[in-house]
Amino acid sequence: MSRITKTFERLAEEGKKALIPYITAGDPDKATTVPMMHALVEAGADVIELGVPFSDPMADGPTIQLACERSLKHGTSLRDVLGMVAEFRKTDKDTAVVLMGYLNPLEAMGYPEFVEQASAAGVDGVLVVDMPPEEARSVDSMFEEAGLDFIYLLAPTSTEKRIKTIGEVGRGYVYYVSLRGVTGSAAIDVDDVERNLDRIRQHVNAPLCVGFGIQNAEAAARVSEVCDGVIVGSALVSRIADQADSPAQAIKDVSGLAGSMREAMDANAAAEA
Amino acid sequence: MSINTTEKQATDFNVEMPDANGHFGIFGGRFVSETLTAALDELQETYEKLRNDPEFQAEFDKELAHYVGRPSPLYFAERLTEECGGAKIYLKREDLNHTGAHKVNNTIGQALLAKFMGKKKVIAETGAGQHGVASATVAARFGLECKVFMGSTDVERQKLNVYRMKLLGAEVESVTCGTKTLKDAMNEAMRHWVTNVDDTFYIIGTAAGPHPYPMLVRDFQSIIGRETQRQCDEQIGRQPDAVVACVGGGSNAIGMFHPYIKYPEVEMYGVEAGGLGLQGDDHAAPLSKGKPGVLHGNRTYLMEDENGQIMGTHSVSAGLDYPGVGPEHSWLKDVGRAKYVAATDDEAIAAFHKLTRLEGIMPALESSHAIAYAMKLAATMDKDKVIVVNLSGRGDKDIHTIAEMDGVTA
What we know:
heterodimer, A: 273 residues, alpha/beta, TIM Barrel, B: 410 residues, Rossmann fold, 2 domains, six-stranded mixed sheet, 16 helices, 42% helix, globular
């Protein structure tokens, strides 16, 4: 069983929801990423989505675009990111790590080398924003054999046919994009999310995690009521942007926000139980 | 895994490309976020219906005839031919279209699609501003709201075109992320589309991007090659030995090439922007010097570094200044049906002056790349051979650049 699946089983037993923070690897610098990952775990993260920076992040809003630029200024490569995961794994064997990014850095490395190295580094899942299931078909089995979960997105505009497809091929969890737009867009509409998740649950067995537009602890708690996990990216990354010149403070601020989300989500779950 | 190679066995050029999923061999496809999938499905469905619909085609043909001014002439460049001393050089005069370039063939087609789909707003990306102007033009013609995304560097470089778009009623959005040029304008247009997908149609300017764009842009631009075939028959009594076109994203080239793909006796040459020369990084020649990768929704040849990050490009012509290329060209290269070469900035500028002086035709700097290579090629061929060059646009927009080089304040 994959580390991701184990995590969701444990959470289900505890009656809790997953907190999944996203940070861009190498932002604000390469040395900060691994300590920040540990701090996020300390603050209550269950899965970490580690962004692989790309020069052309088409599906991201300004916050994550700028994070990519900060990271690429130091030349952060996919190989560097895999090195960071390996470093993180030396002391953390339990927290699942998902690489999130765009396809081209992976194509440039080559699929066989990537799956081998990612698996060796201790990566658990891969979310490639611009790799839909139709295009992934030819390489999907390679990821599966290496024990890497291929995580897919679903959107408010996804048709029933697509939901079925992703229900069949998606592993680990499904990332539900809560709104029409790019990362860091307007605030989330929980009622709308709930209606869509009901529709998706009919065809998808994997845990459903929700991202886009979750800006604070209160929103995280409300969203966590209707799904299995909450993904927070731009809200954290903008804290890094604010403290890009003082990485120690950035770690404190990022883990502080994640911790407040953890608390609010757990309080909510306890109140419901 | 053979993801990075296309097998070079005999290719049947009568098979219609792309396949149902938009693949040209290993190239093309639809590499986009789930958030765009429904919109692309809708577009594909609409287009599949309309591409063989006589009513839609009749409306398209009517617009091309009465609004664009087609057919564009096929012109024998007698003095240029003499100068080169070899094959006869004919020019397909896309520069004589309304708005001064081939771009409008495509924007008319896509604006008609928008109209059929009931979308009231269109967006476009632009580098030099030609596609932006062509989009703003058809938006005015069809009464659509138009927003054009343009890198802030290009906004600065192409002030006149920015003003033209504004005169036509379009809003120009200056894009300040990344390299602040065409690729970033395309990123930003995609982001805007994702957010406003219900009422907005995205008019992509070249034969690249996610399926079905490379196919539909090619179909709309193929009028260039089909007219050329007819005109060659009428004027020369035979088809040319070679066709030559410049390649940035590659829409004018694929428009010329596509109808000729199944006639292997006609050689096809795509001319990329060699910039300061192919030995360094200051060029925009992914087919000559790049490698296959994924950007802007399709797999194709790209200019990228060893880590898969997209590189900045350089060309004197903003219209060729793009790190990718349409996927059909990548396929034509790999199967060996078309040859891709490069002309440097200096060669293009020399060709600009040559054509201006010898024929009284001022070519766009993009098209000047094609002229530059055609002149070299003609010199190596016998006098009874025929080359057709796609003169994709007129050079008025570049006078300012040329003047600056000559130290003249225009």
